[in-house]
Amino acid sequence: MRAVEILSFGYIYAPPPRGMHFVADLRDFYAEDALPGGTGLDRPVRDAIMNLPGARELTASLTQVASAYLATAGPGPVRIALGSTNGRHRAPGIAIAMHDALLAHARIDLTHRDLHRAFE
């Protein structure tokens, strides 16, 4: 089974790492003030993200791109980065949704690079 590495990150801390197959910039996806407290790891926040207009379609499209890379990329893992402003809400929430959608098709390594920084 192929492997997929999904990385969520915050652009305010650093750009995405090099070597990604694709990077999705989620900074302008919606206003964070529409979300409940917490992070993208919390179910109420993820539900609020996925209920925003276009969120399900965006996630499905990103998942289709990942699936295409799984079918055509070389032998190593497919590497995906999802970035939002601080990496606290949008990027982790959509990364988890992609993880869940791809889990039946690949081994998934999910990392939230900057999530801990929101609490420093």
Describe it.
Helices cover 32% and strands 21% of the residues. The longest helix has 18 residues, at 55-72. The relative contact order is 0.33. The N and C termini lie far apart (37 Å). The chain has helices at residues 43-50, 55-72, 90-102; strands at residues 3-10, 22-25, 78-84, 107-112. Strands 2-3-1-4 form a four-stranded parallel beta sheet, with helices on one face. It has one domain (3-119). The chain contains three helices and four strands, in the order E-E-H-H-E-H-E. The chain is α/β, with parallel strands linked by helices.
Can you describe this structure in just a few lines?
Helices cover 32% and strands 21% of the residues.
- Order of secondary-structure elements: EEHHEHE
> What structural category do the secondary elements indicate?
alpha/beta
Number of strands: 4
Oligomer: single chain
Overall spatial form: globular
Tell me the strand order in the biggest sheet: 2-3-1-4
Low-confidence stretches: none
Number of domains: 1
Between the first and last Cα atoms, what is the distance in angstroms?
37 Å
For the biggest sheet, the summary is: 4 strands, parallel
Alpha carbon gyration radius: 14 Å
